[in-house]
Amino acid sequence: MRVQDRHPWMGLLVTTLAAAAVSAPSLSAQLNFRTLVSFGGSNGVSPPAPLVQGLDGNLYGTTYAGGANGGGTVFKVTTTGTVTTLYSFCAQAGCPDGKGPNGGVVLATDGNFYGTTLVGGNAGNGTVFQITASGTLTSLYSFCSQPGCSDGKHPFAGLTQGSDGNLYGTTVLGGTYGQGTVFQITPQGVITVLHSFQGSDGTEPYGGVIQATDGNFYGTTYYGGANLAGTVFQITTAGALTTLYSFCAEPSCADGAEPYSALVEGSDGLLYGTTELQGPNWNGTLFNITTAGSLTILYNFCGQTGCPDGGYPHAALIQGTDGNFYGTTDRGGTSGCGTIFKLSGTTLRTLYNFRLRNGTEPDGMTEATNGVLYGTTLEGGINILCPYNYGCGTIYTLNESLGSFVETLPTSGPVGVTVEILGTNLTGATAVTFNGVAAAFTVDSATEITTTVPANATTGTVQVTLPAGVLSSNVPFYVLQ
Description:
This protein has 481 residues and is an all-beta fold.
């Protein structure tokens, strides 16, 4: 399945600085790669999004198709590779529970997971759902429930929970002008359309939105904007949208075109992302952009003959606890099946070249609190009797020795708010601090601590003291006034 074939009904079209240094994959990186799961159809087909770590230390995700009813699944996988199907979509005639969960799930502060389905629901145009860690699913909203689909249709990406507790997402079509929307939805299912795209400000936001530390949300549109090649936008919780950048603003689209994935905020406060197409080598770019809209190209893919550095970066980047950015390319590499790369400044190192047996068309990674990178591929694996005859997709790990850490849920809040700390081997914790200020806490399990933000706490790193040492949070906790 090529990029343009991922969802044929959507009609995806596949049509600065000098290239930075690129280095070959190291032998150690190749040896540290492991295929953890090869999907087989009955337990799902084509995991299309990064995994998310749950309170229990397991990883949770979705498959776009397969499962008991062919409509995709929500699954749980242990860090050793045992997969449990939690829910198979399209369990009822007409798929009122949704079908094709394309965006993965997000762990919310209530301990439940939330996600979207691309199609299905009461009107056949997608849903928002909640699912517990034990697999109880509740459909919260069916899109195109309002006249003219003014509420949007076909949510392609997953959701983001804002600091206000609400969930935020996008639809690639529908809205007032039929060009897609940005929406807010409460955990109870009350939806508000924040913005309807109309073309000049972008169209078809495939990548969803993230909330940055300034409190605003940021995202991309695949098409539209001043040059019809996609945009980067900012939107407030009140729905005020600002187009920060329109791609293809440089001759021959040297700045790239068609940003497909979500952005990520770096520790430096800049937003990082990729364009799937164009750039000097016509295989996409890697960029950062300020919240004021100043864009810098960091890397141009396919800078060498045969694209050993990969091309068509399809999934969102992540910033590892070592400060470097990690990502994947959908194509290229030594076997043409895509790559895993690390970006240090403007130097790109290829860490792994996918082969069909180990997966192809990688769809994003996450760094678990044990410091290991976990990712998914849309196709490939050892179960070749699957749609497209390319395998049903995989889950893989890559151990770059990044080291263990803890993460907080949420990542911001006022004094007194309850915070869950996720980690590995947390039993025996003797102290929790917020930027050096001690907090009361309870060890719930080896993977979860419950605490509250103490009085006099300020924004900074959360640390957990254990018999074996001190673990720090991967990002600062922002104390809200």
